[in-house]
Amino acid sequence: MNPTQPTDPSAATVRSLLQAGIAAAKAGQRSQARELLLRVIALEETNVTAWLWLSGLVESKTDKEACLENVLTLDPNNEAARQGLLLLQKNAAPSASPAAPPPPTAAEVPPKPSPRPQPKKSAPPTTARPADPLKPGHLRQHASIAASLLQSDFAARQKPIDPAERDAPEDVFANEYLCPYCAKRTRPNDQHCPACHKKLWIHIPRRATPSKLYYFFMWNVGINIAVIVVMMVLLVLLGLDDHSVRNSGLFYGVLTALGLIAAYYTVILIGYFKRWRILYYLNVVAAVLLMAQAGANVLISSLRSSGSMFCGGIMFLLGIVWFFMILNLGEDFAYDKYRLILRVDPDVKTSKTLVHRGNHYSQRGMWALAAMHYRRAAGQSPDDINCHLTLALAYLRLNLFDKTAEALAEARRISTIDPLLENSPWSWSKNAEPDW
Predict the structure, then answer these.
(1) What is the CA 269 to chain-centroid distance, rounded?
(2) DSSP-derived secondary structure for 253-311
(3) In this predicted model, what pLDDT tens digit does every residue of 51-99 receive, in sequence order?
(4) Could you please report the per-residue DSSP string of 23-63?
(5) Which residues share a beta bridge with 341?
(6) Is the entire prediction scored with pTM above 0.70?
(7) Longest C-alpha distance within the chain, in Å?
């Protein structure tokens, strides 16, 4: 085929550009979204969705009216476009003046469909009409989302939609309760996915960073381990110098006891690092036993001498202080249970961090969650072939073959001679099963 001859764009290319434009609009990147949507209209000027989203991205009132009227020409029953025009007329009424506004420049006006013959009327239409309008109801996937975008853009000029919001309703990942591993449907209260049997709930520490008191107890355990190890080393050195000590049974008994105590404290230290809940209960029991022992010592010492009673009272007070310190550790060992939701993490913004987060989830087997991050990255960087290839792999792992074909088509649009696409193992039949 002669590369200089123009070819009709594939449906996959139009869809991928449209998705990238919508993703950029939702991320607040208005100029990039406007450019992508104009590319869609240049390839397919009867695309209702592109005109509808573009109406919320152009700046001048004339351009907005032109986009919305083109939507109504293509889809006369489009309620979102009708409401947008009414809102424009309502906002323009108080500030109307006898002088007509200057016409927009050619650079400001988005491309419009070719005009259609119209019957003569007293007032000609203000915008061009496409030659072959679509049937009513066609291409209305983004009507509800576009309506809210139009109102916020026309009425209040509010800030752009936060990227953390869910994607368009027609999206395969629109249901946030889909399994993050296999993208199969689950119910909000399901503990495990019915398809892949993976856990859908996780436990997260209530405190992201432990308290200073928590670190105090952890360092105390670490110091105890260090002291015991030093005692064991000194005992071994003493046994090496004195054969009588080394040959006695007491030597091995003490060494074994110190080793067991060191092992016990090591397990406790690991429990502090892992935040084992059972460790908190063991500390509470130990504090109660310490107070009970100190109280018993006070009663016994009161029968002997005042000095012993004073020492016992000090130990009892220390036991009380220790008990309340342990109680304050409750929040450090507390966990909250959360449902895994299919949603892009709100703390990642750039395409690079989105890909890294997607790689993190893919390594954990969460391919649906990884696909959402890869797709957001591809929307922000539509010319990055790696974003589309990783997205294609995620779709393939989820058996979404049509989506995989779209992602690969977009990658081939970027570079048909990329080494990653040459002899690609993804050159599979649509009905073929993936071979992992």
Answers:
(1) 33
(2) HHHHHHHHHHHHHHHHHHHHHHT-HHHHHHHHHHHHHHHHHHHHHHHHHHTT-HHHHHH
(3) 888 888 888 888 888 888 888 888 888 888 888 888 877 776 554 444 4
(4) HHHHTT-HHHHHHHHHHHHHH-TT-HHHHHHHHTT--SHHH
(5) none
(6) no
(7) 122
